[in-house]
Structures are given as C-alpha cells and as structure tokens.
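The passage that follows is intended for readers who have already worked through the single-chain material. We present the inputs for a multi-component assembly, then the predicted structure in tokenized form, and finally a short commentary. You are encouraged to pause after the input and sketch how you expect the pieces to fit together before reading on.
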Amino acid sequence: MTDQLTNSQPVPAVTGRPSSSNATSTFEMLERLVDQAAVFNAVILAEQNPAPTRNRFFGIPVSQRLHPFNAEMKVTGSCIKASNEIGEAMGTITQKWALVPDNYVAAPRRRPHEVPFDPVTSQRFVMEQVRVNFGDGNDGFIGFGTGRTFPPARGRQEKLAVAGVGDILQGFGKFHRRAGNFIICGDLIPGHGFEGNILIRVVDPYGELRTKTRLTPIQPMAVSIPETTFLMLRSQKKGPGERSSFSYAANGHIRGINVPLELKQLSTTFAFSGTDGVMSDISIGEVMGKEVGFTATDPDNPGPGNGSGEAPFSFQGVSRYTFFDRRGPSVGSFTVNFIEGRTFLMKLPADPTQRALRFAFYGPIIFGTGCFKGVRGIFYGASGSVFEPPPGQHVIIHSYMARLDDAEGKYRVLTN
Amino acid sequence: MNTQSVSPPSPSGQPSASSLPDVNAQIYPFDMVLAMLDETANFSMFAIPVSGYDEKASLTPANPSDWFGLSGGYGIDLLSELHRFEAIVDARSDGVRASQAVGQSTGKFHCLCLFSPADFKWNTRQTPPPMIFDPWRSQRFVMQECEATFGEKTSCKCYGIGRTFPLMVNGRHVLMAAAVANVMSGTGKFEGREGTLICTGTITPQLGFMGNVNLRVRDNEDNIVSENDLPPIEAIQNPDRDNTFLELRLLKKNKHVKTVFGPPPGGSLVSLVTPSEMRSVRYSYIGGGRGPRTHMEIGQVLGPMSATVFFDLGAPPGTAETPVPFTTQELYTFTAPGGDTVGTISCGVVEGISFGLKFPQAPGQPGVRFAGFGPIQGGTGVFAGAQGMLTVNSLIGISPHALSLMHCLHLIDPNHRYRQGTGGY
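Having made your guess, compare it with the prediction:
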C-alpha cells in the first residue's frame, strides 16, 4: 500500500513520454494489475420530504441513503435489457453542490463563485463536498468533483438530468489511503432532491475491498426509479492483438487515440461480509458487443493540469457502442460524446515503472441506431489503464453505466 | 466590406467624418447598378435529411478505422435532399403569415461540419482543432466538403462557417444551426461563378439537417435566370411542422433613399445605417437536364427594414481565402396594407462574411457580395416572444448604395402562428 498514490502523495512529473515498461509485465499481467479495483455501484433514492424546489439542492448539504445496485444487461430478442435491482440501504451520501460559471476553474477546497439556477440552460456545478459512508459510517471517503445539468426537465415530476465526475480526496476506515473516482448521474426532482446512481471505482492492489467469494445477491426492494433504466457493462481489450492507434490530423500532428474494445456483461454488488467489512463483488459475463472510440489527446502534450487530485488532466472523446445478439447481428448502437473526463496519474505497486492512469467521465448519448434509435440519456464510466504509445501496449478496463430515459420500460427486465 | 479606396483613418484609428466615403454618390446610375446586382440566380431550397444516412455517415470516409470520424462526435456528416421551396409572406392587420410549400426534390446537399474553437478563423486550407459536439452549447463549426448538386452535371462546392444555437421550445431541447458559405468552385452552369450559400434549420435527433438553404449565384451571362415563369412547385407533405420561414426580398424604396454613417462602434469599424423596404417574394427554380433555371416574382410591400451594418472600412475587399467579417443590428417592421404596424422583429447578424464584387459591364463600380446569420433577439406585436434566426444573402453596390437582398426570418413556430393554413400540404 505504501506505493499507492493518493492526492496527498507526490505526483510523478509529467515527462511527456511514458516510462519504459517493465519487460516482465506482459499484457495479461498488466491487465490483471489494472483490474485490481473494487466497484461500488449504488442508487440514491429521492427523499420523501427534503427541499421544496429543485434549485434548493444547490448550496446546501443534503444527506441521502445509499442502496446497492445492480444493472446487469442481457441481449433479449431484438434488443438489450437490464435488471435494475436496488437493495436495502447500506450507507449514506452527503453532498453539497454549487452552480458555477462555465469558465470556473474548480479545485478542492476552493470556494466556488456561485451563479443562480437556470432551468433552461445546461449549467456547470461543483460537487464541493461529497461524503460517502458505508454501514455505520466507519468506512467511506470524502470526495470532490464537477458536473453539468442537462435540461429540459422531463416527465410529470419535471426531472432535471445531472451528471458529475469526482475524485476521492480522503478515505477513512477501509478506504484509508485509497485512490479512486466516482461518477454521479441521475435527476434532480423538485421537492425530492437527487435520485440516481453513484458509480465508485476504488484502486485495490491488495484485494482488501474486492471479495474473492460471491456475496449474497441483492435482494431487491419493492421500489425502482420510474421512467429511467440504468445499464451496466464493462469493456476491455480482446487481447494484446487488439491495438490502439494514433489518429493524425492532415498536418501530421497527433489528433488523438483510436481505441477498439470488447463489451462484456458486468454485474456488481456490495455488502458487509463478516469480519472483512464492506466488500465489493464483481462478476464479468459474456461478450455482448464492441466499442470503437476516439479520445482527443496527445500523450506528449496532455494539456493543463498535472494529473494530481488538485489538477487532473481533462479529456473529451467520442465512442460508439454496438451490441450483438447471440447469432451475431447488431441489435443496435449508440454514440456517446464524453464532454467531461478527468485523468489521474497513479502507480501500480507491482510494476511502478508503468504509466498507469485512473479516470472517470460522462457525456450525453448523441444518437442511436437499431433498437436504440431515438434513445436519450447519459453514459458514464470509471476506468484504469496502462498506456504506451501505439503500437505499444494499451491495457484499459472500463466500468460503464448508462442512464436512459425509459418511460415505457423498453430497456428494463422486470424483477421481483 | 470595403471595395473602394477610401481615405486613411484618422490617427486615433477612428475614421473621421470627413474621411468617410460618400456611399450614395453615383459612379454609374442607380438603376443600372441595381439591374447588375439582380443578374443573380436565386435558389430557395429546403433540405430534408436522407433517411438512413446517419448509419453510414463518417467524417473520415477514406479511413473508417479512424474513429475521429464518428459522425456526431467532433463533427457531423450531413446529407440532405434539396427540395424546391416557397414561403410567400402576407402581412395583414390580424397577423403575418407565410404560405409555405416544400416541393419536389431537385438535388442533394452534403457537408462535413467540424466543430471548432470559438476563435477559429475562416481558413479554407486548415482543419480546425478537434472540438467535441455539445448539443447544449452554442458552438462554432466549419463546413468542409460542402457541396450542393443539381442533377448529374451541375454542382457547387463551398467552404463556410456556422454555429449551433440550443433553444428550449415548449419544454423541448431544440438545436438550431445556421451557416454561411462561399462557392469555391462549380461544374455545369455553376462553373466559374461567384456565389454565396446560407442555411438555417435544425439538427434532427438522427443528426441530419432540416431547413432552408438559400444560394445566390452571379449570372451576368443570363443563362440561369429566366424572365419567364417556371413550372409551379409540386408540394409534398410538409416535412417540418415546427418552423416557419419568412422569405423576403429587400431593396431601397427608390434611388433617393440615402444610406448614412452611424456612430462609430470603435476601433477601425464604422457603422452604416441602411433603410430598405421588405417585399414578399416567390423564388422559383427547376433542376432539369439542361441545368437549373431560376425566376423571381416580387409581391406585396411588407414594411420597412432598417439595418445598421458594422464593418472595417479599412479592410481590403474580401476574397475567397480572406473574406471580411461584418455584423449587423436590424429591425423588421411589418405593416398592414393600411400602414399600421402589425409587429416587429429585432435581430442581427453575428457571423457575416463579405467579398468584393466587380461588374464586367461597369468597370470601376465597387460592390459587395455578403451573407450571414444571427439569432432573433425579440419581437413586438404578433412577433412578441418570437424565437428563431435571421439569414441574409446579399449583393450591394457602393456609390450608389443599391441593394439586392435575399433575407429569411426563420421562426420557431410549433403552433403555426405564422403559417397560412394548417401547415400541411
């Protein structure tokens, strides 16, 4: 754990070129190291009697309960569907958000310059304080992040979609000295606060947060989130032969990186497991599609920031997700524009020579085809990677979620 | 926008009153200059996205494994059918309405729109730095590989700039887009022609462009413009129920109407206050095997329009590689036949480009070809609460300041306040 990078530790200098890889680290070994992470996927349900208006969520701390959540996807018939299983509360989240101007440079412990709520404009906000407590509050973390609102309000309840990306600043209990990221995505509901999902990915090189045995599956409560379906999936390289490549502009400069990946089923839960305390359980299923993506970044010139918790690198990108049925044909695809992504440098304790990264991001689904034609929603994820410039090794593992507007339950598998 | 030699600006950088040219002087007679300006083929068209093209669209068709080319990411690959279009405006005491008809398909409009930083300048030789498409933000884009085709033989290739404008309409998120482009090359009847293209419409959920495209091509050989009526439009079912377009022809009421310089806005910019008269108009065109033909039929007077144009008087005449930018502030006052004001629209060009214009028949007569777009800022009377876009596609003379203006007021109109009939055809 001593090599684990947290925001309180020195950050490796950005030297442009990544350090040369350890010759003993094969693709498979690196992938195993990158995959040493726990995922805590939780739902935050709307409160029954909190603030009276939507904008009252901003500027005041709001506490809500955390429920374990699973949104495993399956190809069923001519489309995909996901279970949306919400378990009994196993923690709390306390958040204070502030609306800020578009050009505001956010940083932890910096008091934001607040602006008024505007229901018809997509506004930027700072998640000034995010405190997640698991169980009785001995385990958890304090985080910081930034996000956006996505008008218009939808449905009878006038839900306003929001998404934000965050970094774990300080862990406590089992999260002490842990690095990780989280993404919040859901809706602000007038009179009821935030309702949605928090996806937390915590780097776990010593396997203290991720169980090796199966936890008891989520026992769904008799509630769900109306008009919304969440999808959960994972993507990673098919193998070392599935290479990333540079994209070059007409002037020969690197424009960004092309990354092909394979999409797989993903199922998660978390629970308290005897003396181990809170543990995450992740299981990976069948291949269900492919991802092709482009990220506009030049590794030699990553832009402002230094990859630390105080000043992460920013990135944007576009990806297309195509899903197949068991016989092979595509059932549909959607394209996502990642409008806010944050990258943090880190070290892999087992191979500190590697340029390892953890990052998180979100963005709107821009358009869909096949069974996703007309779909609306937000796609987001948290990831780890080791990157060597093409044609070198590029190990990458994404845990993804999508929040789809789904008033008719088109993408939902009904569960008891 | 300047096309003539003028006195240098004063030492302060501000043009002094005495240094300003007399734009109303007549190097050639006003009526002759107006007739030369009208030697222009006007194409009023309606773009309807080609069904299913979103699944094939790519910004990098020659390199499909470069996923920078995913349409909808850093740009949009648009392909629309171009249809004949008429939007004839009628102003009465009870309102202003357009008789709007989308007609037969006459060609295609293809364009790669690449999003760019807000400060990216017009550059026909350079691709902008990657900028992700964000439908909730007003973003600038460049139009590359932009081509309008009419049948197999006639086409024009353009380069241009545009912007998206997110709007909230009746609780729905609507993404408007407008763009202005210069004809860079042509084939068939468009070979060797100067021209300007302007469009305003919406980006559809399947990433297509639906809306009005107006193209003006210089035709001083008179082989596109027809003096005779063309076959009538064959209206199809209305593809766009949410938008109404007011097509306008503007010109000076007569040769005695003067243009004056307004208060200087600062720097080397000047302002030119230009009064004109709005008229309804039917722009007709046909494709056809022998190339396109156009015809213009002028209708009723709709009221006055006053435009203040801001531009750099000291800039050399705009060229295809270096057009001269301009902006405007405009007030459209619609009047009933008795003269009473029915409503007004305030708007202005926020992205305008201009090019020097010469007349082979009148050496030494300066002129300007210019086009631009900008959002509607507000309205009064029947236009209270109006949202939408202005496009201008213009040719003017300088000394005399004769005008031949093709404007379009694109109104978001889901309730058909500004459309005659039920909106269906």
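Commentary: Confidence is low (pLDDT under 50) at residues 2-13 of chain B. Residues 323 and 401 of chain B are 20 Å apart (CA to CA). How closely did your sketch match?
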